[in-house]
Amino acid sequence: MIQLSAFSAMGLLSKFAGAEYSSSNIISSGEMEKRIIPSTGEKIPVTGLGTWRTFDRGRFEAERAPLKDVLRMLVSKGATVIDSSPMYGASEGMVGDISSSLNIRSSTFLATKVWTNGKEDGIEQMNESFRRMKTNVMDLMQVHNLVDVHTHIKTLREWKEKGRIRYFGITHYVSSAYPELMQLITSEKPDFVQFNYNIADREAENRLLPFAKDKGIAVIINRPFREGALFNGIEGKKLPAWANEYDIKNWAQFFLKFILSHPAVTCTIPATSKAWHLEENLGAATGRLPGEKDRKKMADYFLNL
Questions:
Q1: How far apart are CA 138 and CA 145, in angstroms?
Q2: Of residues 169, 233, 170, the one with CA closest to residue 201
Q3: Residue 222: CB partners within 8 Å, gap ≥ 6?
Q4: Residue 171's closest CA among 211, 122, 221, 214?
């Protein structure tokens, strides 16, 4: 039996405000599904790429080659979102170097974060992120884990007005931060909020996801595979026969389609350094999505493995 949070173990599914479900929710059968950023109406693909741990390498060309394949795959499939942070070691630099060498900057939506205390230190760190990622304009700059959030949001508002960034957001990765995220959504009205959510960690369904949707905030989901732990729980297990009804071909798509079937989610950013794994992940952005009853069936199946 896979251990879930107390909320998940109760098998509860929230009633999503304004959400409509059907057992035949369809997303594009060929092209990647895109969803709207509420603050502007711009659309971004629902599956992107995280870089924590996976892109913190590349001193040697042999290490860079697989990462080049990943970014080449990303843009060839029509995905755009690449999320990084100065916290992620060499990741920002790898993204910048490879994007430049492949000449794909115009095909990407670059997101990174500020992760330090103090206005001037924040400005210095963000300028370094621009340099590392080889861009003059950052698509999305986020306050990482809410570190000195009120200081940095003031800078981000100024930079957005000046055109240095296109959007600003706030992030965290633990459920204990949800109340503060909700307070900031109300008081600061960021374009994006990023937080953890997956089939095993579903506390966000209770209030945060419907709250973000109601407030018109784009949602990026991190830790969609629970840092890979979800795959440990299904090792040697077969997908249920009914997974094919939702065009699910592998466990990665099972987990990602569960997330993407929530109407508040704009994009999810599973991290990988393998092109074949990225291709699996991006496959979750096409085909049929589960409806509300189907989501419960998926969660119950996973719970009872």
A1: 19
A2: 233
A3: 50, 83, 171, 173, 194, 195, 196, 268, 269
A4: 221
Of the CA atoms within 13 Å of residue 28, those in its CB half-sphere come to: 13
Q: Which residue has the tokens 């991006």?
A: 282
Query: If DSSP states are collapsed to H, E and C, what string results for 98-116?
Result: HHHHHCCHHHCEEEEEECC
Cα–Cα distances in angstroms (integers) from residue 54 to residues 31, 67, 116, 278, in the given order: 26, 9, 22, 12
Q: How confident is the model at residue 60 (pLDDT cuts 50, 70, 90)?
A: confident
Alpha helices in the chain (DSSP H): 6-9, 61-76, 91-102, 119-133, 149-162, 178-188, 208-215, 229-233, 251-260, 275-282, 292-303
Residue type, 254: F
Please report the sign of the dihedral spanned by the C-alpha atoms of residue 228, residue 15, residue 35, residue 219. negative
CA within 13 Å, CB half, 282: 26
Q: What is the pLDDT of residues 115-136, one digit of tens each?
A: 999 999 999 999 999 999 999 9
